[in-house]
Amino acid sequence: MESKQEYLILAINPGSTSTKIGLFKNETAVMETTVRHSTKKLEEFPKIWDQYSFRKEEIISTVKKRGYDLKSLNAVVGRGGLIKPIPSGVYSIDEKMIQDARVGVQGQHASNLGCVLAYGIGWEYSIPAFIVDPPVVDEMESVARISGLPNIARNSIFHALNIFATARRFAQDQKKSFSELNLIVAHLGGGITVAALKKGKAINVNNGLGEGPFTPERVGSLPLLCLVDLCFSGKHTKEELQKLLIGKGGLVAHFKTNSAIDMENMIKAGSEKFKLVYEAMAYQVAEEIGARATNLEGKVDAVILTGGIAYSDILTHWIEERVKFIAPVHRYPGENELQALALGGLRVLKGEETAKSYSVSNKKIGVIYWSALEPFSRSMSIIEDTLRDNGYRMRTDNSNLEIFYKNCQQKEENAQEAIAYFEKTGVDLIFAIGSMAASCIKKYGKNSKTPVIFVGIYHPYVLGTLDLKENENFYAVCHSVDFKDQWQNTLARLEPGIKKLGLLYKADELQSEIQYDQIRKIAKEKDLALFAFDLHKAEEISQALKYFKESNVECVVLGSTSVLADISPEDMETLTSQIPTLATLEKTIYKGGLFGYVASWDEISEKGVKIALQLFDGNQPKEHIHQPGQRLFLVNKKIAQALGWDDKIREKIPEAKFI
User: Fold this and answer.
1) If you ran DSSP here, which 8-state letter would residue 189 be given?
2) Which one is the CATH code of 137-327: 3.90.580.10, 3.30.420.40, 3.40.50.300, 3.40.630.10?
3) pLDDT in tens, 237-263
4) CATH class of 483-601+614-621+627-658
5) Model confidence pLDDT, tens digit, residues 550-566
6) What whole-number distance in Å separates Cα of residue 417 and Cα of residue 569?
7) For a tag on the chain, would you pick the N or C end, based on fewer CB atoms within 10 A?
8) What's the CA gap between 390 and 201, in Å, rounded?
């Protein structure tokens, strides 16, 4: 049996008076220790950043004393600090990140040293250096950023490292993908943050430095007018107030302790006052969890409690009693930050995740599409989401990406104007979504030097005589599954004796004509009688049904046309509830087609963005034509039951996915 590859990873987590370090062989810790730094020694350094060389030597010395050779490391991972807002994930450390950490673009904290310590050791021993899910991870929805004052936006600072690591661990325990779950994760520690994770993204969270529940050391949200009075009372300097709000607030303000153990000992001794305040903290955590449930529209798979205080049976019981109606509650006490750092590095080393780039330069993108079809709108959403996941920001004060959208409104002259506009604007790249937009680029933009990514064209034939060797900046992601494959994976398995086949197509659309030719060849090869109906508008669907019934057609192919892509489910079912249909587009099955062997439009769109990211990084993709990867046999459950095909499909095609 092939042996499992073993990676050695160094994890570094600097704190105010100590540096936690760990060595991991894959997921397993072989060394974890805390290097403590005396206050007297740290006072020798005027600024936190000045401690870099001292802490670095302490780390190297400690690892060597434990008998490990740093040259044998495969990666070093540091705790991310208060750098600029970025999406979650693993990031390669670069000079821009180090510069932002040094100046403290979002504040000074010992964790800012994490990236430079990892980078310094990585540089010295020629190994890759990363950070993982820093506290400034920001994936908040636009609507979640708005406050009652236009010049003050809500922002995201939370316990991202532990929250994401715990969510991944929960998903693994449930044998599910992290990216398919909706979770509410509450980190309970000296600070308390509660995040709504929608399919792997933190779409909303309370800012741990000024919002949400009060905590052992922080005040959380306060009555605003009372806070204003306190600020202008003359009793406190600005620095004293900041320390009161973050450090001397919460349980410390009430009882001079930040210890959950002290609180519970007093409660067990019978103190009603300690119980009231401690329960109030649990009450506010539950309240924040309830707010996150609304962010997820009530679609919550689990509520997870983590962090040091999640060890408390009393506190977590109070929380669970108030929120268990939302979703099952799970406890994962502790933080395990060193392991979370190491696991992030391990995912990159194993190729399970790609390290993101922190330094993303400003870009301009043009997007041209033929009409406002739902699949095209879906592509645009995926393009934005995927670019945002890779560090690009749009429509914000610190944007580094500008996107220009041009809807051709099914008019060729609009496409010509759009191409000219993109040239004038100087976009770095163009996305052309759909076959018709691709045809216009082929006609009016074939001499352009701007890279063009054709997303969701039916087939390379759509580009016709366009020489991709001459147009080396053109790339295409196709959505068609060759009809021969369609036939072999659908009707050949379900109805091998079929003799009469129908087809809905549109004569003036190139992709539809190409598909017609493919189907005609298969029909001739299989000795099938083919009956084609040229559908130019949805209202003609009843005429098509009459034609196919009079011809005794046994199955109708729903071709790749703009009419069928835009048709309503009600109009579609006029035909599909009467005659079995083979759909060639994913969306057509959702609208009422019986079944189809199709490519995922989401996957096609994501592949297009990956090409763009390669180009932005200065890497030219090897291939110009990209075919769909995963194919799915999808079945419309409602239509299958109406036609009596449900059992037949389940028996003959067990891998079929019913929707």
Assistant:
1) S
2) 3.30.420.40
3) 999 999 999 989 999 999 999 999 999
4) alpha beta
5) 999 999 999 888 888 77
6) 34
7) N
8) 13
